[in-house]
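Holo model, phosphoenolpyruvate. Inputs:
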Amino acid sequence: ARKAALSASTGPGATSDGHKVPLLANVGGPGDVPAAVEAGAEGVGLFRTEFLFLDDSKQAPSEEKQVAAYRAVLEAFPEGRVVVRVLDAGADKPLDFLTPADEPNPALGVRGLRSLLDHPEVLRTQLTALAKAVEGLPVYLEVMAPMVADRIDAKAFADACREAGLQAKFGAMVEIPSAALRARSILQEVEFLSLGTNDLAQYTFAADRQVGAVSRLQDPWQPALLDLVALSAEAARAEGKSCGVCGEAAADPLLACVLTGLGVTSLSMGAASIPYVRATLAKYTLAQCERAANAARSADSADEARSAAQAVLSGE
Ligand code: PEP
Ligand code: MG
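Output:
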């Protein structure tokens, strides 16, 4: 029992019957790496590269500066996975040189991948810097685009990655309901999906993630959100590809079990949450997680979904 407790507090993420669910860290730059390593992260599931860009709102950081920052993160996970998200500017993270100043609804405007497709030189520099940063390192680099709406977006991103000569897997974030609904079509262009549940909740419920008054609708236990997660995970499974979660939802230990039951293949979160998620996941079998997921999806509210999953997992 002592050995089991020990492995549940350090080893790779898995259910009690050995179904592996890699536990990855969300990082904003090299400064977040020590905590991720300390927590036993199996890699990085979301490197939010926009933090590199926030120092100077007038221009992008030089290629050299980007190479150094990417390399510092990539070096920390030999034989591990590092998923880098290309710049996600706009909406709550505007940049003067990318974000139009006069948008009535910035969250629905030119943000994420849309900004990069409007400024291909910024995307090109970022992808070239990543290609240089990974040279000679044994890490598995994956690169993904934020705010992919459809197959056209996914193809544009994959084309840009190929043109930059990047040796990596290319993926799409699922943050817009259209991407979840047509995940199979998007997967014709990219090799993996990553669910950004923070934005996916915002766009599914028409509830601004920065407005406290509508926070009830931002609850990731909302059954409608779970349905979109299930659709995405099922599409990925049908295509033989992976579908992770890198939004806040992954950091809730009970919800992490439900997401696993929905077919999600990896979970990425702030490093501090990893030990709790690892320990909780290790208590239940995959079949229990699946039953909890079904119970949560049958509920009519976030609170009911949470209670239903809890009841299943505690054997009530
Ligand atoms: C998300 O939207 O869930 C996500 C992971 O991206 P961010 O929180 O950086 O928008
Ligand atoms: Mg997002």
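Confidence is low (pLDDT under 50) at residues 1-7. The CA atoms of residues 195 and 245 lie 5 Å apart.
Archived with the compound record.
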